[in-house]
Specification:
Blueprint (H helix, E strand, L loop, with lengths): L1 H24 L4 E5 L2 E5 L4 E9 L4 E8 L3 H12 L5 E6 L2 E2 L4 E2 L9 E6 L2 H11 L2
Antiparallel strand pairs: 1-2, 1-5, 3-4, 4-8, 5-6, 5-7
């Protein structure tokens, strides 16, 4: 019995470490999810990010300018364009950035895009994370 516990412990510790590393890897990054598909916007994908505060509509968002990394643009475009008619959810540290949004048409993020955010505090957290 003692031998079984030792083997279980030896197998459990590496598994926990791997799980911890994978969630840390996506910490402080926007994650776009459509069904089982997802794309994490890594720091290397973002050239700049700035706050967009519309006082008339009381909406807050972040303008994200992408770096010249074509793989980032391609992966984000592919996620959106291959899931037309489905809902996309956006998370930052597992917190929803906005309500899920239906993908109505294909897009090209080009050099950047506007990301709506539910509140200003969360938008500032996103800016701080990508500003590093």
């Amino acid at each position: 019995m003692k031998r079984f516990k030792t083997k279980s412990l030896l197998l459990s510790v590496p598994a926990l470490l791997l799980l911890g590393c994978s969630s840390y890897k996506e910490k402080d990054q926007l994650k776009y999810v459509v069904g089982q598909d997802s794309f994490t916007l890594s720091h290397k994908c973002v050239a700049t990010a700035k706050l967009q505060d519309n006082k008339k509509t009381n909406q807050t968002g972040v303008i994200i300018n992408l770096s010249d990394n074509d793989q980032c643009k391609k992966k984000l475009n592919n996620l959106i364009n291959s899931n037309e008619g489905k809902d996309v959810s956006v998370y930052f540290n597992e917190t929803p950035v906005t309500s899920p949004v239906r993908i109505h048409s294909k897009i090209d993020v080009g050099n950047g895009y506007y990301q709506s955010v539910t509140n200003k505090e969360l938008a500032i957290d996103i800016l701080s994370a990508y500003d590093q």
